[in-house]
Amino acid sequence: MGNVNRHSGQSSHPTQESQPSGKRHRRTHLTKSVDKLLYLLSQGCMLHKVKGGGLLYPRTFYLDTENMVLKYSGSEKRPISKIREVREGEKDYSKRLDPYDRGRCLAVVFGTNHEVLYLMSETSQMRDDWIKGLRFALHMDQLIKNEC
């Protein structure tokens, strides 16, 4: 038999309504955080494309979740569906950079041929934001495809 409150005869198991709003608050907070992050990335951020020899090319990157594309200045667009992986810091090019810069690096792997877009952000926080945002967008894209 379930736990019964001896004084009222009611079950002592909390109902959805009587549960502390902790879980709902965390979920709401998480949703707001993700929405804020996606909005920030949709507004555009300066990232540097890292090319051979450690050459840096500044580009403004945008995450367009409405059209599910990663865009950057120069009219380049990459579909989110083509992203295979988003990596933190990348050893094969970060060793050419100042050790301070390694914490600001990320790599986006595209397609079956594993074409890699190497990027460096202005700050490690910005790098972390892009990693979270791109991974979330990739997850969203996969969920949408699974529903169809």
Automatic annotation (TrEMBL):
Residues 1-21 have a biased composition (Polar residues). Signal peptide: none annotated. It comes from the Eukaryota. InterPro entries: PH-like_dom_sf, PH_domain. Residues 1-28 are annotated as: Disordered. Coiled coil: none annotated. SUPFAM superfamilies: PH domain-like (SSF50729). This is Inactive phospholipase C-like protein 1. It comes from Magallana gigas. The lineage of its organism: Eukaryota, Metazoa, Spiralia, Lophotrochozoa, Mollusca.
